[in-house]
Design brief:
Blueprint: E1 2-6, H1 16-25, E2 31-34, E3 40-41, E4 54-57, H2 67-70, E5 76-77, H3 90-99, H4 101-104, E6 111-115, E7 122-127, E8 130-135
Antiparallel strand pairs: 1-6, 2-3, 2-4, 4-5, 7-8
Helix pairs in contact: 1-3
Length: 140
Amino acid sequence: MKVAYNTCFGGFGLSPKAEVLYAQRKGIKLYPYSCSRGITYFREDDLDGVTGYVKFLTEDLGEEVSSAVMSNTKHVYYQSFHDDEIRTDPDLIAVIEELGADKASGICASIAIIDIPDGKAFEIDEYDGKEDVLPVREEW
């Protein structure tokens, strides 16, 4: 079983390109907008190398939108990658392997994949965003 985890301080996160590919595998079409250089739409093929803060919307609202629209949760897409279960998601693993760890890693992240025996319980131990994949500790 493959598990995705973050090997550096900062925290687990996907690059904008990886987020779009992951959502596509889940049947969700995303529209990325920049939040760091004004509020500007990115075309999907322009996402390579984008490292700034990107917000994903579930509707194409044109090349520019107002900040009020960006704060409206009706249009905003968010996927949490903090549950251990999602770190073994075959779609997540496939996106990381397809892009390579460097291109799949988000800002302040360095994603890696570890292969552990199938069916073995694990936990992700985290300190300041840096993670280790460990066997589940026995309870007291």
